[in-house]
Amino acid sequence: MSSIVNYLRQTIRATGFAATLVSTLAAAAETVEVVPGVQVTKRAYSSPINEQPFFGFSAKSAEEKAGDEKFVDAIIGATGSREKAFEETTKRAWIALQAGKVREAAVRFNQAFLISPDQSTVYHGFAVIAQARFNDFDAADELFKIALKQPNPVKALKADYGRMLLIAKRPRDAQEVLDQAVKESPDFSDAWTNLAWARFQNGDAAAACTAAEEAAKRRPSNNSISDLTAVRSVAQCK
């Protein structure tokens, strides 16, 4: 994925008409129960359905449903269990995202949804896709919040959620999430880097440098090295 500094340089323009339209659409939004007890706002985008979260909520034919079942049975048979099938599929999805292959990642997360639709990683992945591919921050926010409640969240969840909030120009909300992220996973460098950005965006350069120092101690990932360098520069850290 692109570095956060590049995202933060982007501007979001909205007219009064667009804001009114979004508000009207939100009020009329339809929700769908994707698994028992989990309601998601129905959204569709201009792309192939297997590249949209939840297959774009499209109605599937009996033949398509049979094909889905055949796929799930085959991958479980190849990996040895549903858990391993899910792990392998999501692993490939994250690798695709890290390589900038967002379309492939979306396909993989849809496959993961077929395998284990209740898992946190499904909603986490779809949240990243909604933001990175479709620039839909409302969808991403909703899906991140669902991911926080679902089983087996990964360590990067709150760090990624906070990063999305930063990109959406919501640094105060981002800092709240990222403060929790570093408390729960103090060894995760990317969370500290994102927290440094949140603190800087909220006007506290000194605290940003403190977070950046913590990030540097914890082996930053390849994806966050440029982010860390950038925040140290803009915050004028020593």
Query: Quick one: how many beta strands?
Result: 2
Structural class: mainly alpha
* Count of helical stretches: 12
User: Could you give the order of the helices and strands?
Assistant: HHEEHHHHHHHHHH
- Termini, distance in Å? 28 Å
Radius of gyration: 19 Å
Overall average pLDDT: 91
Range of helix content: 55-70%
Q: Pick out the low-confidence regions.
A: 1-27
Q: Give a short account of the largest sheet.
A: 2 strands, antiparallel
So what's the overall shape?
Answer: elongated
Report the sheet-strand fraction. Answer: under 5%
Query: How are the strands of the biggest sheet laid out side by side?
Result: 1-2
Question: Which helices and strands appear, and what pairs or packs with what?
Answer:
Blueprint: H1 4-8, H2 16-27, E1 31-35, E2 38-41, H3 62-79, H4 82-98, H5 102-115, H6 120-132, H7 137-149, H8 157-167, H9 171-184, H10 189-201, H11 205-217, H12 225-234
Antiparallel strand pairs: 1-2
Helix pairs in contact: 3-4, 4-5, 5-6, 6-7, 6-8, 7-8, 8-9, 8-10, 9-10, 10-11, 10-12
